[in-house]
Design brief:
The protein has about 200 residues and is mostly helical. It folds into 2 domains: about 90 residues; about 100 residues, no CATH class.
C-alpha cells in the first residue's frame, strides 16, 4: 500500500468521521470551550472537506498520484457524507428520505462505475459538471445543518434545508444522467450475454 502526503490527508479525512460522530456522544466535559457540539462537528466536517480538495491538489502538484489514492479518495468522501447525513437524521435536522436518496445514489453510481471499469467503459460515466454542482450544493448544505444556529439573523437550518433539497434533486438528475450515458453499454452487455 503506497503512503504519501495526499494519501495521509485522505486517511485523516476518514479518521475525522468517527470524531465528528463522537462529538454528539462524548461527555459534556470533553467538548472544549467555547465550542458547542454543533460548532465542533461543523469544524471537523469543514476541515475534512478541505482535505478533499487539498489531497487532490497535492497529488497532482507533487506527482504523487496512485491507483490506491484514486480508490481511497472517493471512498473517504462518500463515508464522510453518509456519516454526516445519518447524524443529521438522528438529530432530527434532515428527513430520512433525503438521506436515502443521496446515499442510495452514491452506492448506485459507485457500483455502476466499478462495473463499467470492468468492461472497459468507465469513461462513459466520468464525473460530469452536473455531478460537481450536486456535490457543491451538498457540501454547502451539510455544515449549515450541522451548525444549526442562526448567524447574523440568517436561519442556517432553513438555508441548509433548501440547499440539501436542491442537492437531492440534482442527485436524482445526475443519477439519471449517468444511467443514460451507461445505457448503451448495459444493452450491449445484455445482448452479448444472451448471444453467449
Amino acid at each position: 500500500m503506497p503512503f504519501n502526503l495526499p494519501i495521509f490527508l485522505t486517511w485523516l479525512r476518514i479518521i475525522a468521521i468517527p470524531a465528528m460522530v463522537g462529538v454528539y456522544y462524548a461527555p459534556d466535559s470533553w467538548v472544549p470551550a467555547p465550542f458547542s457540539r454543533d460548532a465542533l462537528a461543523t469544524l471537523l466536517f469543514c476541515a475534512a472537506a478541505a482535505t478533499d480538495w487539498l489531497d487532490g491538489y497535492l497529488a497532482r502538484k507533487l506527482e504523487q498520484t496512485s491507483a490506491f489514492g484514486a480508490f481511497l479518495d472517493p471512498v473517504a468522501d462518500k463515508l464522510m457524507v453518509a456519516a454526516a447525513l445519518i447524524m443529521l437524521v438522528q438529530l432530527g435536522r434532515l428527513d430520512a428520505v433525503i438521506a436515502v436518496i443521496i446515499i442510495g445514489r452514491e452506492i448506485t453510481i459507485s457500483a455502476l462505475r466499478e462495473w463499467m471499469a470492468q468492461i472497459g467503459a468507465r469513461a462513459s460515466v466520468a464525473v460530469s459538471m452536473l455531478g460537481k454542482i450536486k456535490t457543491t450544493a451538498q457540501m454547502a448544505a451539510i455544515p449549515l445543518l450541522l451548525y444549526h444556529r442562526p448567524v447574523a439573523g440568517i436561519d442556517l437550518q432553513e438555508a441548509g434545508t433548501w440547499l440539501i433539497y436542491v442537492a437531492a434533486v440534482l442527485t436524482l438528475w445526475s443519477m439519471a444522467y449517468y444511467l443514460r450515458m451507461a445505457w448503451p453499454e448495459i444493452v450491449a452487455q445484455e445482448k452479448s450475454g444472451r448471444a453467449g
